[in-house]
Task: structure prediction
Amino acid sequence: MSEFLPCPFCGKKADVSNRQDESLWSHDIVTWYSVGCRECDYSMESCDYLDGVVSRWNSRVAVAKEIVHLTAKCVDLEQRLAAAEAEVAKWKREAILWSTARCVCITSQVDEAGAKEVC
Result:
């Protein structure tokens, strides 16, 4: 049996299985091989060639590692964006508080018409 790498997404051992079924092309009974991960519920299947499906499974590792890396980077950027948005919201609240605090009306001079308010 061919060597196959663990699941590129979760790192668990991949399983190999086979089944007998009709070929879609020749309608003969052929062996279908499948390599997959039960944890991630993902598999690859091929007719008659175990080495072919294992080779395809193993070639996914490089692509999957890049996907995992980019996914982690996206999560980090989303967290940083959320933190930045929270900071902006905090500064907006501060700006509103300062603008209302500075606009407290004070009574200045009193003339014949009454009190004159200045904001």
About this structure: The beta strands are 15-22, 29-37, 42-47, 106-111, 114-118. The chain has one domain: 15-102. Confidence is low (pLDDT under 50) at residues 105-109. DSSP finds one helix and five strands in the chain.
